[in-house]
Amino acid sequence: PRKPFEAKILLTDGQEVGWALCRDISIGGMQILMDNVPGDAGTTLKLNVTSSATDIPSFACDGEIVRVLEDGRGFSFRFLNLPSNAKAAIEKYIA
């Protein structure tokens, strides 16, 4: 299951840094919106996720792009390394 979730994201592919917004979240990943997608499916990224809501504390994670949105203004992201406290908070949030 997914649930709407707004957060600011600082991300990097190891070469460039960018800002993005989170649209929704699940225990497996999130949908991220930004003007310039940093790569194709399979590109690995490091993210720092900060929400103004207190439901999910700020966290850092690693993951990969699994699908670029048709309009090229975002992508689906799969968590590969999600801290246990963030995982627990996300599970509680989407329940």
Concise description?
The chain has 95 residues and is mainly β. It has one helix spanning 84-94, and strands at 3-12, 17-25, 29-33, 44-50, 59-68, 74-81.
List keywords for this structure.
single chain; six-stranded antiparallel β-barrel; 1 helix
Give the topology.
Blueprint: E1 3-12, E2 17-25, E3 29-33, E4 44-50, E5 59-68, E6 74-81, H1 84-94
Antiparallel strand pairs: 1-2, 1-4, 2-3, 3-6, 4-5, 5-6
Structural account:
This protein is mostly beta strands and 95 residues long. It is 12% helix and 52% strand. It contains 1 helix and 6 strands, in the order ββββββα. It has one helix spanning 84-94, and strands spanning 3-12, 17-25, 29-33, 44-50, 59-68, 74-81. It has a 6-stranded antiparallel barrel. The longest helix is centred in the last third of the chain and has 11 residues, at 84-94. The chain is globular, with a radius of gyration of 12 Å.
Specify the overall morphology: globular
Ranges where pLDDT stays below 50 over 5 or more residues in a row are none
Largest sheet: number of strands, sense, barrel closure: 6 strands, antiparallel, barrel
Radius of gyration: 12 Å
Trace the largest sheet across and list its strands.
1-2-3-6-5-4
Estimated helix fraction:
10-25%
SSE-based structural type: mainly beta
Terminal CA distance reads 8 Å
Element-by-element helix/strand order: EEEEEEH
Q: How many DSSP E strands?
A: 6
Mean pLDDT level:
95
